[in-house]
Amino acid sequence: MHDDNCCNPPRRSFLSAVAGITAATALTAVGGGGAQAATNDPYADPPNPALEKGNMKLDRSRAALVVIDPQIDFMSPKGLAWPVVGESVTEHNVVANLGRLFEAAKAADIVVAISPHYYYHWDHSWKIQGPLEVFQHKVGIFDRKGPYTQDGFRGSGADFLPEFKAYIEDGKTIICSPHKLYGPQANDLPLQARKQRVDQIILAGMLANMCVESHCREFLELGFEVGIVRDAVAAPKLPEGDGYLSALINFRYMANGLWTTDEVVKMLVQA
Questions:
Q1: With 38 labelled, which of 50, 110, 159, 172 sits at a CA distance of 20 to 30 A?
Q2: Does 193 have pLDDT greater than 90?
C-alpha cells in the first residue's frame, strides 16, 4: 500500500519516465503531421458521419448522473496518475465541467451516484493482471488500508476531489461499492440504479477509454439508455495511444447520447 503522503521516490521516478516518453511521442506526432496536426482538432466530429446520432431524450424522472472515479489520484496535480492523465483532464476542463454537472443534477433533483475505485492490500497479490492493472498497482493508485477503516483515507489519492465533496457527501448521493477493474459488474451500481427506477444514465468521470467505456457497455447490455458527457471525461496519453480519442470513437458508435456539459446542463434545466 502506498504512503498517504504520496512521496515515494521510485513511484515518482516511474511516473516521470512515463510522462517523458509521452511528451516525446506527442511532439513526434505533431512534427510528423505537419500543418494538419497543427490546425485540426483531432476530437472534432466527422463532417460527414456515416452513423446517425443516438435519439436519447433526457427524462429526469428516470435519469441519474453517474460519475466514475472522481478521486484525487485521477483529477488532481497531487494525484499519482496525474503525469499521464493531467494533460487530458486540463484540456477538456474536466474538473470544472464535473462541478457544473453536479450542481445542475442536484438542482434538478435527479439521482446522483458515484462509482469509486479502491484497492486494498489483498488486491496487490492478484495473479492475473492486465497492463493498466500492473501500472495502477505499481504506483499505488487508489490504495486504502481496508474497507472498514478511514485511517489515512482523508486527503489520500483514493479520496474524492475536494471540489466535489459538498455534492458527494450531502447524504443524498449514492456512493457505490468499488469497482475493481473497469466496469460496474462487480459493484452495486446497476442494482442501486434499478432500485431508484432509473433507466437513463448520464455518464462522466475517468478514465474515458477504460472505466467510462466499460460502464457504458455494461449499462447498454442491461437495457439502459446511456448519454456520455464528452467534455467531462479524460484519459491517459501514452505511446500506446490517446485514450480519450479511442474512447470518443467508440462513444460515437455506441452511446445513445454524446453531449457537452453545456447541453446536459440545459437539458436538466428544461426537463
A1: 50
A2: yes
